[in-house]
Structure formats: C-alpha cells, structure tokens
Amino acid sequence: MSHKEIPEYTEVRHPIDHDKLVKYLTTISSQSKNTTLGPHYPEYLKNISKLDIKQFTFGQSNPTYHITDLNTGKVFVLRKKPSPNSKLISRSAHAIEREFFILRGINILNLDQNDEDKKVPIPDVYALCEDESVIGYVFYVMEYIKGIQIKNPDMPGIPIDDQHKYWNSIVNTISSIHLLDAEKLISYLPSHHFPQFQNIDKLKGSSYFQRQIKTLKAIETKQSEYVDRIPDFDDLCKDILRLAPKDPAKLTLIHGDLKIDNILFDPETKKVKGILDWELCTIGHPLFDLSNFLQAFQVPNKLNLLLYKPQKTDIGRENNGSIDFIYKQLAKYNEKVTWDPKDLSNNATDLWLIGFTFGLLRLSIITQGIAMRVKQGNASSGNASGYASLYPYLSKLAREGIVEYESKKKLNKL
User: Fold this and answer.
1) Which long-range contacts (CB under 8 A, 24 or more apart) does 128-133 make?
2) Are residues 249 and 374 in the same domain?
3) Looking at the structure, do residues 252 and 367 belong to the same domain, yes or no?
4) Span 82-110, average pLDDT
5) In this structure, which of 114, 141, 158, 219 has its CB flanked by the most CB atoms within 10 Å?
C-alpha cells in the first residue's frame, strides 16, 4: 500500500518523567515561569493523573510522543528537544520554540478566518514550557491529529478519483499557507526567537533566493573540507541569482519542507487534516514550496525509483503525463493565489523550472552533507551511501534545468 495510518510508534526510547509532567500539566493555570499557552488549553489536561506514553518512530531530531490520558482516553502529543539547551551542539537545529510559536500564530489567524477552505490545517498547540527544571528539556504539547500518511506522490494503489480529491486538497492547502497575512503573523512571534523578522523593511529589501544562496554557499564551503565539491556549484549559484524572481510584494510565509510525507489526510474525505514539521518555515518565495512538493514529477524516473524504493513508480520527466500533471496543479494554484496583476514574481507556471532548479541545487547540498557524514562515520540511514553519491548527478540535472528554463524564456519571452 502507498499509505498508512498514523500513529507509527514504539516503546519510549528517550524517557520523560511521568509524574513531573502530570504535575506541570494539571497546574498549568498557575504556571508563569517560561510558559506560553496556545489559543486553547483543554480542560481535561487539568485533571489527568495516569498517562500511557509511547514515542513516535519519526522525530529523529526532536523526540515526539503519543500520550494517552488513561482516565478519559484523550490523546495529545508532546514534542521536546533531545537534550538540555546547554548540551545542544546547535540550538537552531532543534528550535521547537520557533515551531510552537509559528503554529500558535497560525492558529490565531485561523480563528479570524471565516472561510473554512482558507484555514491552514495544523494541530492546535496547548502550551510551551521553556523551563528546563520541569522535565529536563524544553517541550511543548499539542493536539493529536489522526490521519493517514501517503509516502509517494505517485499515490500507487489509490483510485484515480481519490487521487484527484487528495491533490485538490493539497493545492488548496498550499495556497492557504501562502495567502496568510504574514505581517500579522510576525506580530504574534516573540522577537528573541525571531530576530530575523523584526525589521519588515529590511525583510522586504532582500529576496528569499538571495538569502538562501548565501546560506547554501556557506554550507557547501564547510562540507567541501571533507568531501569533493559540488560540480559547477559556483556557476549554478550565479545563474540562479540571475534568473530567480524577486519576492512577491506581499510577504509570504512558506513551510520550507513541504512534501507529501509531512501531511496527514482524512481517509474519508480525502482532505488534508494536518501539516507537520514546521521547523524550516520562513518568510520566502512561494515558488519553493511548490517546486519542493512537485519535484518528483520533473526529475528522471530512475531517481524516483531510488527515492521511493521498494515501491515502483513511473512518474518523472520521461513521462509526458507527469509534466502535464505539474502544470495542471500550478494552474489550480494560480487560480487561488492572485497577487497584484502587475507583479509577475509569483506566476508559478512561468517560473516553475527555475524553482525546480533551485530545489535540485538545495538537494545537492543535502546529499553532499550525507556524503560528509558517511565519510565521518556519522550517517544514521542504511541508505546513506546511495544518497551520498547523488550530488554530482543532481548538479548535472540543475544545469540542464537552467538551460531548459533559459530556452523556454527566450522562446516564450517570459
């Protein structure tokens, strides 16, 4: 099957103190030290006494727990840092505080949104505890959303009519994220966790692609101390900066890691129930979320066979149906997200190939990082060595993407 029901969990691998957690949650109304509440705090949490705690199989970066109140059968989720702040190598890599505040802010915006189709489907967050004396770690608790997870965007084994319903909801959800009032959202975010968002004029004065290329260059330089450089990397960066669009005039929130396995679906309605993993969200260009989500339909089929192994799939650039599929989804998106008609920077159809190419460059950085960890003996995945060899190939694909985009731009006078 191409989909499975969540949760997937095991016995606890990283224990948390049951009694301290219960004491904290039942007295949270009187808590004040480093505690932030979400828009709602469930009454049942004030009366819990005995909890069944399991750990999700996902959450390698930040351990995540499926917790059941044995008195009522109510379920909630706890997400924590892997260690105290003082022992983290990189606090930014485990910034669950940022994730909490983003989700809290979106939930507040959802309360003011009367159109249900424009609400962003995310879990309700209940409380963030930054006081490490409570259970030893920074953590937050949130709503548990039960749904199915689809791992492969080709959706093998799913009837065509159901696929259409899933994809209609996916496009609607992506557009809902991008239509959020980002400036209002920023007003709900604490400045000490989001210093990069405090100067709106400065944020509007630089582009997402400029900021990202600067970051990717720094990462590639560091990783190249241990493994070979990414072929053609410097020229690819120059070409993307030359061709990439400016940000839309309206500040736009992007998820930053939007892909099908970060979405939970309702198996009955075939609609998105929840979007997970907001750690990489930022103010950016909506083209990246689109290119990240639809990437599999443009890359060669042999790459998809590797990424979705052992499932078979025929999607990829060799399949004309795959390319047609991309542009159908982009057309649906363009119908929902309308900006200033004079501002063409968000014309997803015209800009698709340059967004796709940037995604390949970013993926080459990720796979070069895997190669570095393989060489250092720190790779955690059994497939790491296969992925580690991909970055020269991804660089070649990115160059082909640049050539194709410029050819179409010249032909169509984009």
Assistant:
1) 128/35, 128/36, 128/38, 128/97, 128/100, 128/101, 128/104, 129/24, 129/31, 129/34, 129/35, 130/34, 130/35, 130/36, 130/97, 131/33, 131/34, 131/35, 132/84, 132/85
2) yes
3) yes
4) 83
5) 141
